[in-house]
Design goal:
273 residues, 3-stranded antiparallel beta sheet, alpha+beta
Length: 273
């Protein structure tokens, strides 16, 4: 239990081993994530740091597919996304988009599409209980977040009313429209795809630069998004709070750009080697 690693068991050359689920990974190292003590949290934090990549300007939490799978599972296990049957928080931005792209979003129409898992710098937690003062928070109000914060240290926490790219959201909108994703045998909660798309468009990744296709393009390529709802959300949560300092021509430009992006997404190939 002192050291965790991703080393695969020995195998016969040419044999393809089944992928070990994240649940199996932690169980095989002696962890019951429903009951972890202070020493185990220290071990998990050390493993998290060892499996992150230091870019010189900060850590990339999830530089490869295994670290993405295991750390996403670890976060949601230490800090459950549901509490007493209600939504507790949502996994958003890059990690939330990756879950949508790699997993199955329930009750959503999709197009044939595949991309390899990309690296992700950190976790953004949306619609959680924070002291909402209109700014990014680093500590949640709820005590059930303590263990996750002890392991990952830096989690970007946002309340229900704003995100990295949107403002003035109705208090219960994100929780009431949350999507369920099945990935690696586990269910996760992410923002409604239309909200996730707009947020990723307005606040693209900065720590991990996407040389080719941005996350919002990939979301629009895989899913049959509600275009009317996208334009409505664009007006309410992106344009409205900017109206004091943008022109009517710029407002029209936002909507034209949205239509252009949705058209561009349709032309992306089904897969990239």
């Amino acid at each position: 239990m002192e050291h965790l690693n991703f080393s695969a068991p020995s195998k016969i050359e040419g044999e393809k081993l089944p992928q070990q689920s994240s649940q199996e990974f932690f169980t095989s190292h002696g962890f019951n994530l429903a009951e972890v003590d202070a020493k185990q949290l220290e071990v998990l934090n050390a493993w998290h740091l060892q499996t992150s990549t230091d870019t010189g300007s900060g850590l990339v939490f999830m530089p490869d597919p295994d670290s993405f799978r295991h750390k996403t599972f670890l976060l949601a296990s230490l800090w459950p996304q549901k509490k007493d049957g209600s939504v507790n928080w949502l996994l958003a931005k890059g990690a939330g988009a990756e879950l949508a792209l790699q997993g199955e979003v329930l009750n959503r129409e999709t197009h044939e599409f595949h991309r390899e898992i990309r690296s992700h710098a950190d976790f953004e937690v949306y619609a959680c209980d924070t002291n909402d003062v209109g700014e990014l928070a680093w500590e949640a109000v709820s005590e059930d977040s303590t263990q996750a914060i002890e392991v990952f240290k830096l989690l970007e926490l946002y309340p229900e009313t704003f995100t990295k790219g949107m403002k003035d959201l109705p208090k219960d909108l994100m929780r009431s429209t949350a999507e369920t994703v099945r990935y690696d045998g586990t269910s996760y909660l992410i923002p409604q795809l239309e909200l996730l798309f707009l947020d990723k468009w307005q606040a693209p990744e900065s720590a991990v630069y996407r040389e080719r296709e941005a996350d919002h393009l990939l979301i629009a390529r895989k899913f049959n998004l509600n275009h009317q709802l996208l334009h409505e959300y664009l007006d309410r949560f992106v344009i409205e709070w900017r109206k004091e300092y943008i022109t009517s021509e710029q407002i029209r430009g936002y909507h034209e750009e949205l239509d252009r992006i949705l058209e561009e997404a349709c032309n992306l190939p089904e897969s990239v080697a």
